[in-house]
User: Fold this.
Amino acid sequence: MYRYDEFDSQLVRERAEQFRGQVARRLSGELTEDEFKPLRLMNGLYLQLHSYMLRIAIPYGTLSARQLRKLGDISRHYDRGYGHFTTRQNLQLHWAQLPRVPDALLELADVEMHCMQTSGNNVRNISADPFAGAAADEIEDPRILCEILRQWSTLHPEFSFLPRKFKICVIGTEEDRAALLIHDIAIKIVRNGAGEIGYRVYVGGGLGRTPYLAEEIGSFIEKRDILSFLEAIMRVYNEAGRRDNIWKARVKILVHQIGIEEMRRRVEAEFADIKKGATLELPAEELARIAAYFAPPAFAALPAESPEYEAQLREHRDFAQWAKTNVHAHKMPGYAIATISLKSIGKTPGDCSSEQMEALADIMDEFGQAEIRITHEQNMVLPHMRKADLYALWRKLVPLDLATPNHGLVTDIIACPGLDYCDLANARSIPVAQAIATRFCDLDRQHDLGELKIKISGCINACGHHHVGHIGILGVDRKGVENYQILLGGSGAEDASLGEILGPGFDQEGIVDAVENVIGTYTNLRQNGERFLDTYRRLGPQPFKERLYAR
Amino acid sequence: MPHPLQVLTANRLQPGEVVYWNGSTGWVPRLADAQVFSGVEAEAALKAAAEWVRKGEVVAPYLFDVGMHQETIVPVKVREAIRAAGPSVRRDLGKQARNVSL
Amino acid sequence: MLVKGGRIADDIFTPVADGEPLSDGPIIISLRRFQAEKTALLSREVPLAVRLETAETPEILGEDVHKLAAIVLHIHHFKDGRAFSWARLLRTRLGYRGEVRISGHFLLDQIAFYTRVGADAFDIAQNLPVDSVKVALTEISNVYQPSVDGRSTIRDLRTARFAKAAVTPP
Assistant:
């Protein structure tokens, strides 16, 4: 993974000191709250329902053991002993205190971490496929481009006060494990007819009040032109994006207002202009230099099958249950990708205690895992496990409550922090997730249902990605009382689609029964081993409406 | 039509914690100790809070509606009940305003 | 207080509101007035400056921009970041060489960004110590991305120091 050199380290330290100065000016009264707010947001510090919340950037969701251990330490000493992994692969601490944040930033800088641009109207954390470097069909590790974009977008002088936030995602495979098309700029690494690697660029994805999937704006951008092309998009957006209404300020609104053709015309004109100056050309040497940081680890030459692993699967039923959902194929023979579920039944989805973080860091060291990944589904991934080590890994995860065998199943729920924590929320999401998970906890039932992605947001900002859940749940405020709307048929995978609202909402009592009825409709009507999503796409909302809203 | 009963709330600037206004004792952490206002008094309290903001004690003061159940102050909206009691899903972490039920 | 090149500078310009009579010396007038009275204004032989509001792109000025001694980018709210693009546009596509001044509602913490994209003068509130401007400009020593100011980027610094070094994988 990327390692800071002295320039990167100096920058994050200076940024932390700059923030210390800004905090001092706030505390002395030199800055009002209105003036300070955008400054603290640029360092990921929100004022939430109960306290300050600090959002720590985890670039492309990749952490070393040292960094994970430090996060455990920081969450213990600067917060209340846990953190929350988010749908943008970041970590949130929900109990930060303003005067202590500058010290926390310096400690993060010690392990090459920061909170820059995790909030505010700038380019946010750039997300990537959590299986990067391990997936068999990967054309190229997307994190190489992510790191290049991270540096280009950090403290960008022209684009730090955009109309609204800006989210970028990069994947390098056909399979989409990062919800690519819901981003403002989405980049897919592709090969052209001549076998050369380049980038297909999409623009204008985003959820919230008016959800859209991103549309293609550049079918094959050469590697050396990618920064010029992205800067062209950003400039068109910065100049023309709406500033009068925060609900209409994302680039998706601009794309839909002027149309993708006009957007393309403007971007290409700006792109041509930028290329004349050639200052943003990305040299092959720089690409190679960054790529070297993401070179694969030294894999051992192993046979494809591991007899120990096979034997352990036969002997230990619980382990086999876990492997069935949480272990995935790796490009190298004898290796596997392991998902660590943060969706223990009845616990808060995505939360991880300081003890769990530290124990995981020890586990990484023990199994020679240089990296752990955070997924947008709020789970963790060890990308390069030897099959022969999986049983030992699982044995260690069990007592830590990190071995829930539910990846991709109905209890693997995405939920934003919701009204329990968030100042923007209208309804609680975590208790709904917990109640659904508890209702469906029977593992045989979960396997019978198969792949079923439930995503819950506590408000229209959609941080829980409810628009792209097979079953999406949106919490709203109905005259001061929490109410929940159901959407069906969304997908954040390569078959991306936006869910459709089914009908009137349900209260906190009724929503779990409603979800159970929706799922019951599926089990009654499914054919040929279809997933829930396939049954919905085949039949449409009608049978589900009838079941839920029948007299 | 009677004015709604209201409480004035804010967050302390430095720790970020939720506080409520009581004219006699100042900014207090427990909803139970807050002063309940109505109508013109409430607006006056909100206006006076601007001075506390200026002094850097609190941020984002606002009024919210409450009802009285016997002697207990009960927020009308669930959001304020959660703000008073702490996260409903982590009872070990939030403020324990004992006389607010969710 | 006008700050230019990190120091307090004398402001030779007087702003004149629309409808007010023009004073004799160098003046700053609105874009609207410039468009309405262009011939008369350009025939004066004293420096002329035009003030653009945040929604007004410098492209409107076209070739006339080279006849102006200064362009004042007036920021109505610091959250509106269009002027960063306007300053850049002035210096690059329009090739403007005069003074690019930032006035209105902006933060000290934005000065470094404005400077990078080509602004060279700032109308700063009176009660701000000029030292804090210097700090604001130098707090972050190096920059990742190229901009109008032509500063060496971190990549340039790396290339200079580590020419041809290969990175050993862990």
User: Anything to note?
Assistant: Chain B has one domain: 5-85. The first strand of chain B starts at residue 5 and ends at 12. Strands of chain B lie at 5-12, 18-22, 26-28, 37-38, 58-69, 72-75. Residues 5-85 of chain B form one domain.
